[in-house]
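Teaching assistant's notes for section 4

Start the section by putting this record on the projector. Ask students to predict, before seeing the second block, whether Cytochrome C oxidase subunit IV will look compact or extended. Collect guesses on the board.
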Amino acid sequence: MNTTHATTGQQHPIGLYLKIWGLLFVLSAMSYMVDYFHVQGYLRWGLIIVFMLLKAGLIVAVFMHMAWERMALVYAILLPPLCLLVLVGLMAAEADHTFLARLAFFR
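Reveal the predicted structure now:
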């Protein structure tokens, strides 16, 4: 039985995974520090979202092997959620405008 074909897949050094794991640990600690130091307001939510996106990006890029995929596959996976986020942002802006217009005209 020849098992060389089954084990010749793409492999990455374990050091890469350990470095990414360490970086994820540091980003999680920084996210925890935002609450520990009682950061409030938009800065708090901005920092939490930035740390969350950085961690998600590292996980997708390295552990899901997206960093080594073709660009077409990356666009096919990442572009639809990005478009949805843009549309949600546009809907939030429109909802704010509609709410303010109703306040102005229906008092």
